[in-house]
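Fold this sequence, please.
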Amino acid sequence: MVTEFIFLGLSNSQELQIFLFLFFLIFYVGIVCGNLLIVITVASDSHLHSPMYFLLANLSLIDLSLSSVTAPKMIADFFNKRKVISFKGCLAQIFLLHFFGGSELVILLAMAFDRYAAICKPLHYTRIMCHNVCVGIVSAAWGIGFLHSVSQLAFAVNLPFCGPNEVDSFYCDLPRVIKLACTDTYRLDIMVIANSGVLTVCSFVLLIISYTVILITIQRRPSDRSSKALSTLTAHITVVLLFFGPCIFIYAWPFPIKSLDKFLAVFYSVVTPLLNPIIYTLRNKDMKAAMRRLRKWNVSSGIKS
């Protein structure tokens, strides 16, 4: 029986691995600092205590957690000749990836609903997106993520692994691990597509329809706030495309390409969690103003001390 899996990694070239180590280390530091900065800014600034920024802080927390499942192990493995993970560690990666991924999917849907309520139902916004509703949405996001990850783990935990144990990637994910099982996995592949793939595609279509309705509403009701709403929507749509694009190809695309899968895996686990805070801070005047206030407060506190 297989007790460990070996990652083939991104490259066998020693020189390239040193470059990739520095590259991904810088990216991961940026992910930690950027997402923590958003969480701290939203929590500390009363001007940002609104549903949209509450959901944004949770999105940043999930992005940080999602990247931390794979990035530290990948960075450390650049200096290991044998990139090994235990069987239980592999299952833990699968569980956590789908836990945080499923939670992020629900948060992105909630953010689209929040913008719909703010733009299409402005008079009822405070009643629709009250504090209890926001807390309920976030609790549901973590709960749905947990149920989704348990359902994914159920596919893999009882599979017989008795032969090949090389995973052609830098982390464990269900589609790659299933292929190593000593049994016919055709039905399992279909179940993975039906579970993760269909869920991802349906959510993506729902989000596109929601944002289309919002954009039509903005065009029909031009006002002074239209440009600000349009800028916010552009940031949201960009994040949705960055998150769902790789997910659709990894879990729903029936003809996987190994080199493309590796690139999308890197993009999904390292690049997107860094781009999210950049997109939301650079395109959001309220966030930039709040960060300036936080910096001034830190400077004044340092002078007083």
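The mean pLDDT is 83. Residues 186-220 form the longest helix (35 residues).
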